Amino acid sequence: MSSRDRVLGRIRRATAGYGAAPEPAVPRDYLRVHGVRTPAGTADLLAAHLAEYRARVHRTDGDGIAALLARLLAERGARTVLVPPGLPPYWLAEARATRVEDRPGSDPYELDAVDSVVTGCALAIAETGTIVLDAGPGQGRRRITLIPDHHVCVVRVPDQVVDSVPQALPLLDPARPLTWISGPSATSDIELDRVEGVHGPRTLEVVLLAGRAQ
């Protein structure tokens, strides 16, 4: 008998019989949202928390989205931009960067060579400053938002903004590949020296797009 078998045997004996008992009820009397806000107030809170996390926040509407995205890509010096399936074509109508399609066969080296990626999102959470992606239309696969160094994410306001995590969870499908983003990728060592871009984009720009989906 191997060491692994002995350890697993001890665990089985120690936990025998526990599976038959019903799980205790979990109280869910916590607050679902902290405070009462207007849709505009919720958007302002989201913007404030995103900025605290060092994301760059921009606001525009349907008439200005193409010019704004073109400017952000130009300021970045982006020569190529990764475009996921389902991204509204008019968003990048004025961008001069070469479009690179999100292909299942593309490897990490190809994605790393892309200058920027532009995506939509599933929703955003104001109280935590979090953006959630679920690989839906306009978002693409998870890795396209983890490998390129510059991510521009468009959030529709107010359609895709909720106040809190408890409000967000029922709107998300747990079977989908969920990516929760709070600011650009960053980590700190034991001396608290912050390093950005370790396991995701070094620069996150969030565009709050006002108006209903077209």
UniProtKB/TrEMBL annotation:
Quick one: signal sequence residues?
none
- Give the InterPro entries listed for this entry: FTHF_cligase-like_sf (IPR024185), LUD_dom (IPR003741), NagB/RpiA_transferase-like (IPR037171)
**Listed Gene3D superfamilies:** NagB/RpiA/CoA transferase-like
| Pfam families on file | LUD_dom (PF02589)
- The LUD domain extends over 112-209
Name recorded for this polypeptide: Lactate utilization protein C
